[in-house]
TrEMBL record:
Lineage: superkingdom: Bacteria
Organism: Loigolactobacillus zhaoyuanensis
The name this protein goes by in its record: Uncharacterized protein
C-alpha cells in the first residue's frame, strides 16, 4: 500500500475558539493589572525621584507583549506538533524555526496575508528585541516596523540633564535606540494573533515528502 502523497492538517472550530479565548485573556490580564498612572503621578508629584512611573508602565507593557508572543508561538507549535504526531511524522518537540518553515510551505500567499503572518513575525522579532536586544532581530524589525524605534540620548551622557533620569532598556539596543510602543500596539498584535486562527482554512494539504525533509534537517 502506497503512502499518502499529502498530509492534511485540520483546524477545528472549537480549537480555534479556545486559542482565541486564551489570547483575549492577555488583554484582560493587562488591563486588570495596569497601574493607575494619574493617581500615582499625583502621589509622587513632589518627590525628587527618577522617572520610575514611566519605567513601571513600560515594563508592564513589555511583559504582556512577551506573554503574547510566547502564548501564540506555543499555540502554533502545539497545533503543528499534534498534527504531525497524529500522522506519525514526528515525535520530538518542535522549535519555532521549524514552525515558521512549516507555515511558509503550508500556506498560500493569500492565506499568509489573511492570517496576519507578517505581523506575527514582527511580534516574534519584537519579543527578541525586548528580551535580549538581538542585533539581527533589531535589523529585521527596523525594516518592517521602523515606527517602533526612536533614537534617544546616549545613556552615558549626563550633559544637559535636569534631574535624575533612568533608562533601563537603552543599553539593549544598538546605537542607543529604544522602543516606542503603546498599549495599542499590544492590542493590535493580540488581534493579529486571533486573526491567525479565525482566518485559518478548515484544512491544509501539505506534501508529505516536503514535511519529512523539513523534520529530518
Amino acid at each position: 500500500m502506497e503512502e499518502i502523497a499529502t498530509v492534511k492538517f485540520y483546524f477545528w472550530a472549537d480549537q480555534k475558539d479556545q486559542y482565541c479565548e486564551q489570547l483575549t485573556d492577555i488583554s484582560r490580564i493587562y488591563f486588570d493589572t495596569k497601574l493607575d498612572q494619574a493617581k500615582l503621578a499625583t502621589r509622587y508629584a513632589d518627590q525628587q525621584t527618577p522617572d520610575f512611573l514611566d519605567i513601571e508602565t513600560t515594563t508592564h507593557l513589555y511583559t504582556h507583549i512577551l506573554m503574547l508572543a510566547q502564548l501564540w508561538q506555543q499555540q502554533v507549535a502545539d497545533f503543528v506538533q499534534h498534527q504531525l504526531t497524529q500522522q506519525k511524522i514526528i515525535g520530538a518537540a518542535l522549535n519555532y524555526r521549524l514552525v515558521t518553515r512549516f507555515l511558509s510551505v503550508a500556506l498560500t500567499a493569500d492565506e499568509t496575508q489573511k492570517m496576519d503572518v507578517a505581523a506575527l513575525q514582527q511580534l516574534h522579532d519584537l519579543a527578541a528585541v525586548i528580551k535580549t536586544g538581538n542585533d539581527r532581530a533589531i535589523q529585521r524589525l527596523r525594516k518592517s516596523r521602523a515606527d517602533f524605534f526612536q533614537i534617544t540620548h546616549d545613556p552615558r551622557d549626563f550633559s544637559g540633564r535636569i534631574g535624575p533620569q533612568i533608562d533601563i532598556f537603552a543599553a539593549l539596543y544598538a546605537n542607543h535606540a529604544v522602543l516606542k510602543l503603546s498599549e495599542l500596539d499590544l492590542l493590535n498584535f493580540i488581534n493579529s494573533a486571533k486573526n491567525f486562527w479565525q482566518q485559518a482554512p478548515e484544512t491544509l494539504a501539505v506534501d508529505r515528502e516536503t514535511l519529512l525533509a523539513m523534520v529530518a534537517e
